Amino acid sequence: MSAREFNFDGLVGPSHNYAGLSFGNVASFSNVKSASNPKLAALQGLAKMRALAARGFGQALLPPQDRPNFRLLRSIGFTGTDAEVLSKAAREAPVILACAYSASPMWTANAATVSPSADSADGRTHFTAANLNNKLHRAFEHEQSARALRAIFKDEKHFAVHDALPGTPAFGDEGAANHTRLCKEHGSAGVELFVYGRSEFDAGAPAPRKYPARQTLEASQAVARLHGLSAERTVYVQQNPDVIDQGVFHNDVIAVGNANALFYHEQAFADEAGALDQLRRAMGAVGADLNAIRVDTAHVPVADAVASYLFNSQLLSKADGKMALVIPHECQEVGSVARYLENLVAGGGVVDELIHFDLRQSMRNGGGPACLRLRVALTDAEAAAMHQGVLMTEALYHTLVAWVEKHYRDRLEPADLADPQLAIEVHNALEELSRLLGLPGLYD
Question: Active-site residue numbers?
Fold first, then answer.
């Protein structure tokens, strides 16, 4: 059956800020408490969506989450009116206030793990909202992520949206940032690759020493069960703990895949040879050959890969059978990466085009092109059954640009998070957005 891949990009919210909350994310930590530009961030993201849609790629969006998270603040003892809650939190627990204002839902690669209908036992597309329980500022996201996914994919004949896994360390789940689907074509059965950082119940397994391993093997296995995946076509691979300690907090910072191509760094996996062997055998079961594109450390050191977000790019299939690599401008500013990409495109392989975007507002907060999107492969019937109001069109682009220009600030300082007017501005903006997208009642 024919199917098409849609990328659902996160629409950056009106309170986009740099709080530096994500220990292990080097870029996020490096820009802690600097001023942000929410308007520019949203416009940069919209420009990316518009350009890819205009090229004929399937493009949609996931709306931002409401901020601040008053449920979090009230659950830990801050009381009174909304303004009083903000004032008390700013005075007594400014870091927790920053958590309540976290901009991280913009990175929809962490919203959920997705398995298309061609892979699932019941023939439906499955979503499991990620619990993101490794970080306080992200651990509350799954409720709204599931709510949004159910609003967009509400036809239960075609879709199943699962709640997040139990919020315990054993089931640490970071969503599609540690999941890659490989296939011969999007509408046929594929191979689902889960990359985990540690195993909760294997005390002897290698683990990082400096930064946390956020994804567990147990969580990956649970998602595969919920989605009804075939054991023959499901592969579990451990991420190299040494690269986690170098700032590779998710697999999508060190590897990216699409169709039958896996673009990865030499140091991505704890056992590179074993990982490739498993993938080749699983790909053989679906009648496909694995096209492994290996980047050697000698060509691109891990530090350069992290600084440029080379692997946090998007691999997109083109009509001519070749692939385009969607990269941030930073890839052209890191010498080793720029040289590698020039040779890659000139080398006659499957990747023959680079598409550049200015995503500096997102990059400074620790997320590149791949962080901003959730891959969803849909048949024609499934694409017709999902909510159409989130599909990127030229008309929607102009509507959303006008909405951003109306509601977003062009400068946000850390001290502004205590301003009750900001909370009102965000609430009013999102209420209007829900109407523009045709999703009434999207926010609680």
Answer: 174, 250, 371
